[in-house]
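User: My instructor asked us to take a sequence, write out its structure as tokens, and then describe one feature of it. I'm not sure where to start. Here is the sequence I was given:
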Amino acid sequence: MTLKQTIAIALICLPALVNAQKKDKGAMQAASSITAEDMKKHLYTIASKEMEGRDTPSPGLEKAANYIEAHFKALGLTPGNNGSYRQYYTLYKDSLIGASLSVNGASLELNKEFQPQANSYAAEMRFSEAVFAGYGIVDGEVRNDYKDLKVAGKLVIILDALPADYKPTVQGRNSPASVFGKLEAAMNKGAVAVMVVNSGFPRRPGTTNSNWSMNGGYRPSQPPFTFNIGTDAVTKIMGEDGKDIFNKMKAGSLSNKTYPAEITMSYAKTSTTTQVSNVLAVLEGTDKKDEFVVLTAHYDHVGKRNDTTIYYGADDDGSGTTGVLELAEAFVKAKAAGKGPRRSILFMTVSGEEKGLWGSRYYSEHPVYPLDKTTVDLNIDMIGRIGTEYLKDKDSTNYVYIIGDDKLSSDLAPITDQVNNTYVKMKLDRKYNDPNDPNRFYFRSDHYNFAQKGVPIIFYFNGTHADYHRPTDTPDKINYPMMAKRAQLVFYTAWEMANRNEMLKRDIILEKPKGF
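Assistant: Let's start with the prediction itself. The structure tokens for your sequence are:
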């Protein structure tokens, strides 16, 4: 290439480079309203003793929702759900009334010989046989304890143990060797009931109440009707084979087969329901008002223990909730100054994240605004602290983890870098974008429910720290200037995505690691 050609190309590119670096004064003026002082005021309320840890459900959660709604109203934002600032969904909780198990006409003793699982559905079932499936593990090509067994519509007996020569391909709750993995395998094979043999009988009376859940009643996708039984109980079904069953399995002297027995299992319960809500508000756009930028954070935490120990959840995720409140105020001020966004902005704080991403899951399944018209979800979950990995780093107060900007849309990372380089110049740490990251943070906050529906996302996160999910996650430990700077980064990113000519491309397929 000649010198003349090089100069010509540089002159062509120069306007684009200048434009990319040009700061929007309207955006900067609005972003300046996101201050450490305002964030501190909000967070000391959201993470206060009166909120009692904001468990889902709880009176403290409702107090926090009222505070958020009042802020949206004071800003003059439009209610986000057809005239309401709330999007309610129902939770269910079961209480045991009674349970029974009989084998060949003899009743077994509750807690001494068997216990029902508290999350079982109410039913009474009768069987004339039970199928023993060993450890009950199905792990791809590695292991299949149901080989040559027909269990559809039947009662299955499995052991709560692992074979010595087997290493699961996936660890944790999603492991094929976990109780959940084994029940899922039984369900996939068509079993309608499972007895899990445990060595710890007799045992203390089990809980008579289930945890709150979004699922009311039995659905085919739920695990089978499940009882835990002791070795005495399994002997009454399997005879001599059931005696010393764990050692016989270790020795390899038992085979998977069907045992004839008259078995009746019953479980009776009563259900309680309650409602909790996401809190939504909208700032209408101009020429692209039918397209949306969604800004999310979860306002719940894990509540309190023994009615005395409060888990304040200042960073997790009082910080993100405060960020959404400040972002809402900044966009309102921009619009009042004649610099309103082209696309509409949905500000949404969701509940139930700590219980399984409930609120965002409900919204993604019942969207108020079309997800195909939602250009992005920017999710803020923990932006107020210095994570453990950065405590001794020179950029300890000038970094943030950016998660998910390499997925779903090739537009995300370039925009994030451009915005950051133009306005805030933070260190953007993308280490958690690694698909082999053992923490799997990409799958652990509310943005993921949007991602599963194809909506591009970015997750802003400071990393875990010594007070993560402890009562010591309090507002006095927050670095408010750093928190405000991170929130300003989100604001500038949202500003760009709300005002660019085109929605973000959706040109990358979401890949899920094994176990999801």
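For the description part of your assignment, you could build on this observation: Confidence is low (pLDDT under 50) at residues 1-20. Try explaining in your own words what that tells you about the chain.
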